[in-house]
Write a sequence for this structure.
């Protein structure tokens, strides 16, 4: 069964840290680029960060210097370390896996984990 399961969300004070995990099953994890997206209340889902199968990373400007994406291919798990959290980081965070091009493109979404940044 192809599945992404996120964990690690919760309530944190401004300036605090959280680490999100995304455990993958049913896919060849090492072949997939792994991404994190988020959706705040009343807003559209937005891109946060990406790590390619080769380990290259990319971030949306609003999280650069605060968030770090990583992956452990031996554990089939991707991570998002979030530091210096701000109230505007409050959202449901989704893990995304994608591989292939054109007709061979495939993607999987996780169910999301809620991050609330509030005092």
């Amino acid at each position: 069964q192809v599945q992404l399961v996120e964990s690690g969300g919760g309530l944190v004070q401004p300036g605090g840290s959280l680490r999100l995990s995304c455990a993958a099953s049913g896919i060849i994890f090492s072949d997939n680029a792994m991404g994190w997206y988020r959706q705040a209340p009343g807003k559209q889902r937005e891109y946060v960060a990406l790590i390619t199968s080769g380990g290259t990373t990319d971030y949306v400007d609003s999280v650069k210097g605060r968030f770090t994406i990583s992956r452990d291919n031996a554990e089939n798990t991707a991570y998002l370390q979030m530091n210096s959290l701000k109230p505007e980081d409050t959202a449901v965070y989704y893990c995304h896996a994608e591989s292939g091009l054109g007709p061979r493109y495939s993607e999987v979404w996780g169910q999301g984990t809620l991050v609330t940044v509030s005092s």
The longest strand covers residues 91-99. The mean pLDDT is 97. The CA atoms of residues 56 and 110 lie 21 Å apart.
